[in-house]
Write a structure and sequence with these properties.
Belongs to the aldehyde dehydrogenase family. The protein is α/β, with parallel strands linked by helices. The chain is built from 14 helices and 24 strands. The protein has helices spanning 51-70, 73-89, 91-102, 106-130, 172-183, 197-209, 224-232, 247-254, 278-290, 307-322, 341-356, 404-413, 427-436, 470-476, and strands spanning 17-19, 22-24, 31-36, 41-47, 135-138, 149-157, 160-164, 187-190, 217-219, 239-243, 260-263, 268-272, 300-306, 360-361, 367-368, 371-372, 375-378, 395-401, 416-417, 419-423, 441-444, 460-461, 464-465, 478-486. A seven-stranded mixed beta sheet has the order 14-17-18-13-12-20-21, sandwiched between helices. Strands 9-8-7-10-11-23 form a six-stranded mixed beta sheet, with helices on both faces. A three-stranded antiparallel beta sheet has the order 5-6-24. Helix 8 (247-254) links the parallel strand 10 and strand 11 (260-263). It is globular. The termini are far apart. 50% of the residues are buried. It binds NADPH dihydro-nicotinamide-adenine-dinucleotide phosphate (NDP) and 3-phosphoglyceric acid. The site of 3-phosphoglyceric acid (3PG) has 9 residues, from loops.
């Protein structure tokens, strides 16, 4: 009996890429190793696709696009609902891959797959209504015009959408791009993050098994540093949807006349006012700052607390940091090894810089390989890198401020402006602070978060271009087409 995922793997053990409805091996004969973050040893291999294979994948996507766009909207929705069911029925191997290649906790890995199925289903539902709606305009609303023109505006697909997600949500941040793109009648080329590529490969099999026609969804693998530029500057790309770090800034500079959706890094601040509920705040700093070892663009990455409540808050948070579980993803630990040695070195550099400049470490700094024990740093000052840079690790710095204005100024001085949060019992004050914070989202009395996935999600300044969230992503994946009906005589002339 053959298993659901058998065909995605070659006899060599290397995972295949997916082009024009077929699982294939690269003619390069080369693989890219995926390292298990816990051991730094190779756990999987994916194909190192060649430029010629990238060309053929784009050609397949372009060729399939017209017929896909002509497939009725309800039918495209039907395919997506099928994918949702198939993904959930075959979730465990996909979740296992996540655990092995990005060291996400076992339970959270499964949650990512289920959440992704839900996202696909919601996109199908939202899409049939939103994409089916257009606009009708009569000419006589504009000065000097009579009613002799009827303008019909509708939403049409962009063409081929290139989707590039990051390592921390290789499945969820892939489908958040793929589902709206497909629903809107586009075809898709995905380039998954190298760490996370096997989970993404499993995910594509759900589309294949749902019978999505050849060429509609395609997957190429290889290191971003090797094939990334070739992909993003390819002549057949009609839209780029990217989530990741600074790479996004350079993609923006290189990409030509194509719409771009960018979700980049964050330095999400948590402003704690004097009247904040400190228990609630501490709980949210822990959840927001340390879940998945702080490797979330929406993680709390800086606490800006009013001096009068700082001692109490730091002590409450610090106690909870001491209690966090540290270890293996298989054991569902909150703190697991960070994605790579270079990432662990970078995080360590930030901690050492702060320590050398006088920050107080509330926990002894400890690291074994890529596993970094969680640490809260008090008395961080603006001279320290940690006050401005994104660690993407289990490290939360605390800056003590004299006024709420000082906290807002710090927040707005950073080029990263994804999310932020404010804690106060006074809702009027919280709204004033929220309005003053120039970030894509502000959470009041809760930690930053992207979900639920239908909420608009966007970064200001260097944190992004455009907005995600299911409806906004559907809007991103279409262009407006108008058809004007010119009448011989103005309407309303009879009767
Ligand atoms: N705002 C948001 O929604 C989110 C932002 N992020 C941010 O992402 C970063 C961490 O994720 P990480 O995966 O390390 O980010 P990277 O920017 O390093 O990588 C993101 C993706 O880009 C690919 N890539 C690398 N080089 C190129 C290139 N030249 N052209 C095209 N694609 C390329 C990577 O492939 P490969 O792996 O092969 O190098 C990967 O698929 C953090 O800064 C984090 O804040 C993360 C999640 C959400
Ligand atoms: O990649 C990220 O970090 C996410 O976009 C954050 O998603 P979450 O807030 O749902 O964890």
């Amino acid at each position: 009996m053959t298993g659901f995922y058998d065909e995605i793997k070659a006899s060599s053990g290397m995972y295949k890429f997916y082009s024009n409805g077929e699982w294939m091996e690269s003619t390069s004969g080369k693989g890219v190793s995926i390292l298990n973050p816990a051991s730094n040893e190779s756990v999987y291999q994916v194909q190192a696709c060649t430029q010629k294979e990238v060309d053929s994948v784009f050609e397949a996507a372009k060729k399939a696009q017209k017929a896909w766009a002509r497939t009725p909207l309800w039918k495209r929705a039907e395919y997506l609902h099928k994918v949702d069911g198939i993904m959930k029925d075959n979730a465990q191997p996909m979740a296992d891959a996540l655990m092995n290649e990005v060291a996400k906790g076992a339970k959270d890995s499964l949650t990512e797959v289920i959440r992704s199925g839900d996202l696909i289903a919601y996109t199908a539902e939202e899409g049939v209504r939103y994409l089916g709606e257009g606009m009708l305009l009569n000419s006589d609303s504009f000065p000097g015009q009579d009613r002799s023109k009827l303008c019909m505006a509708s939403k049409v697909p962009l063409g081929v959408v290139l989707c590039i997600p990051p390592f921390n949500y290789p499945v969820n941040l892939a489908v958040s791009k793929i589902a709206p793109a497909l629903m809107a009648g586009n075809t898709v080329v995905i380039k998954p993050p190298t760490q996370g590529a096997v989970a993404a490969t499993h995910m594509v099999q759900a589309f294949h098994k749902a019978g999505v026609p050849p060429g509609v969804i395609n997957l190429v693998t290889g290191r971003g540093s090797e094939i990334g530029d070739y992909l993003t500057t390819h002549a057949l790309v009609n839209c780029i949807s990217f989530t990741g770090g600074d790479t996004g800034l350079s993609i923006c500079k290189k990409a030509g006349m194509v719409p771009i959706q960018m979700e980049l890094g964050g330095k999400d601040v948590c402003i704690v006012c004097e009247d904040a509920d400190l228990e609630l705040t501490a709980k949210n700093i822990i959840k927001g700052g340390f879940s998945y070892s702080g490797q979330r663009c929406t993680a709390v990455k800086l606490v800006l607390v009013l001096e009068s409540v700082a001692d109490k808050l730091v002590s409450m948070v610090s106690k909870q940091v001491d209690g966090l579980s540290v270890g293996k993803p298989e054991d569902n630990c909150t703190i697991t090894p960070v994605i790579s040695k270079s990432s662990a070195d970078f995080i360590e550099g930030l901690v050492k810089d702060a320590e050398a400049k006088g920050a107080k470490l509330m926990q002894k700094y400890r690291r074994e390989g890529n596993l970094i024990w969680p640490v809260l740093l008090d008395h961080v000052t603006p001279e320290m890198r940690l006050a401005w840079e994104e660690p993407f690790g289990p490290v939360v710095p605390v800056v003590r401020v004299k006024t709420v204005e000082e906290a807002i100024d710090h927040c707005n001085a950073n080029n990263l402006a994804l999310q932020g949060c404010v804690f106060s019992r006074d809702i009027d004050q919280a709204i004033r602070v929220s309005d003053a914070m120039e970030t894509g989202t502000v959470q009041i009395n809760g930690a930053p978060a992207r979900g639920p996935d239908h909420f608009p999600f966007q970064g200001f300044r260097d944190s992004g271009i455009g907005s995600q969230g299911i409806k906004n992503s559907l809007a991103m994946m279409v262009k407006t087409k108008t058809t004007v009906l010119n009448l011989k005589t103005p309407s309303y002339t009879l009767g």
